[in-house]
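REQUEST ID: PR-0412
SUBMITTED BY: lab tech R.K.
PRIORITY: routine
TASK: structure prediction, single protein chain
INPUT:
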Amino acid sequence: MIYLRFPVLQLRKQTEQLQGYLYYLLRSETELLVIEAKREDLDYGFTQLVAEMLALDQWDRTPEQSTLIGAVTTGKIWQFGRLNRATKHIEQGLDSYRVPDDLEPLMRIIVQVLVA
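STATUS: complete
OUTPUT:
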């Protein structure tokens, strides 16, 4: 089952630096995907996404999921990142996906994250 929540879910204040609201959290039984929406600035949005994934890692202890996947989007452009929960290592995807041109690969990524 997938739950969509926006801006209803507020991360508890984990530290003075890690607090705020998630825009979207897609969740299946063992996987979750965090999405940060930004109007124009994907770089700033990715920085916020990293902070959200780090805070979510402290808040949600889903043992089956060794990585958290996140995305930052302007609505037309999407970019993905991954947090290794054990090492706290962040990887930023090199590819960007444009809607509607790259809609099929974008949807495949989102579905794959949730059913993996």
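NOTES: The beta strands are 10-11, 20-21, 24-27, 32-37, 67-73, 77-84, 89-98.
REVIEWED BY: pending
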